Automatic annotation (TrEMBL):
The keyword Transcription regulation applies. NCBIfam families: PRK09685.1 (NF007243). GO terms for molecular function: DNA-binding transcription factor activity; sequence-specific DNA binding. PANTHER family: HTH-TYPE TRANSCRIPTIONAL ACTIVATOR RHAS-RELATED, TRANSCRIPTIONAL ACTIVATOR FEAR. Regulatory protein of the TOL plasmid xyl operons. XylS activates the xylXYZLTEGFJQKIH operon required for the degradation of toluene, m-xylene and p-xylene. SMART domains: HTH_ARAC. This is Transcriptional regulator FeaR. It comes from Pseudomonas vancouverensis. Keywords: DNA-binding, Transcription, Transcription regulation. The keyword Manganese does not apply. Residues 199-299 form the HTH araC/xylS-type domain. It holds the Pfam family AraC_binding_2. It comes from the Bacteria.
Length: 302
């Protein structure tokens, strides 16, 4: 498949995602993009099966404003892996894992390898009633080993094999939300010392993302662990510290480029977000988003 066919296939896939799940934006992360989406509806059950590789799928404030509805998604990782970010949290989803996504908040998914996800729409009022109106915390990883994850997965996949009446689909949805309720509150499913350290590291990174001093050695000192311990904490989530910091900076750069209304100095933007070499910035940006910073900016200005 040549590049023109790749671009056309990518655009068609993104259009279908936006039709089924609400408006999203996306970038190809490599030449081997693959993507498909199949919708399933039965009464109150509204879900989609998404297959994708080498793609960043994200939702901006502008995307949210262009979408109707206010709900949650339950994302079931069926194959491959995905890195998901929302509200300052970053998790890595492996096969069997589940997480909740809030459709009213910006979110970011990165799919490096062949991944398959089931995305189920959860009505906000049902979720908040089940959580007794306590704050619902999205972007928490419900690990595959948790009993609730296995039961929820079998329930929703089993429902797709049946012809359910409206009442049966409503009961299935209520049962699924009840299973996920323990993971909806403010207490994390995984509240180990390593997980708390990881969340603290992510907060410090976001607070100092534009500082030139931000590096693994500085970060380890700030959160009170050894550099080796820091690497180990990030490795649990399939991440490399320096790469994560660079990607966060690139994502902030991309966000600013999308908001530009006219000509801007790209080198000044690079320096503002901790890149001290504009050539290195352009190379890194193209590796992450598939186009140069200038081309990326033109897409949104136009």
């Amino acid at each position: 498949m040549n590049n023109a066919q790749q671009v056309e296939g990518f655009d068609q896939w993104l259009d279908k995602v936006s039709q089924v799940c609400g408006r999203f934006s996306a970038n190809r992360l490599g030449p081997q993009f693959e993507g498909s989406i199949d919708e399933y509806r039965s009464g109150e059950l509204k879900m989609s099966f998404v297959e994708v590789a080498q793609t960043q799928l994200f939702r901006t404030r502008h995307d949210i404003e262009q979408s109707a509805g206010s709900h949650y998604y339950a994302a079931f990782q069926l194959a491959g892996e995905a890195v998901m970010e929302q509200q300052g949290r970053c998790i890595t989803l492996l096969p069997g894992d589940i997480t909740l996504i809030d459709s009213t908040c910006p979110s970011n998914f990165v799919y490096r390898n062949n991944a398959r996800q089931l995305s189920l729409i959860l009505p906000r009022e049902k979720v908040e009633q089940q959580s007794r109106y306590a704050p619902v915390e999205p972007a928490q990883r419900i690990p595959a080993a948790a009993s609730m994850a296995g039961l929820a997965k079998h329930l929703i996949l089993g429902a797709t094999q049946q012809r359910l009446s409206l009442a049966e689909s409503e009961a299935t949805l209520d049962a699924l939300i009840s299973l996920l309720r323990p993971a909806m509150g403010a207490s994390e499913v995984d509240d180990s010392l390593q997980e708390r350290t990881f969340r603290k590291a992510l907060r410090v990174i976001d607070q100092h993302i534009a500082d030139e001093a931000l590096c693994p050695q500085w970060l380890a000192t700030q959160i009170g662990v050894s550099v080796r311990g820091l690497y180990r904490v990030f490795s649990r989530h399939g991440l490399v510290v320096a790469q994560y910091v660079k990607n966060r900076r690139l994502d902030r750069c991309a966000e600013q480029l999308r908001q530009m209304t006219g000509e801007g100095k790209l080198c000044a933007l690079a320096y503002a977000w901790g890149f001290n070499d504009s050539s290195h910035f352009s190379t890194a940006f193209k590796a992450r988003f598939g186009v140069s910073p200038g081309e990326y900016c033109k897409r949104y200005v136009n």
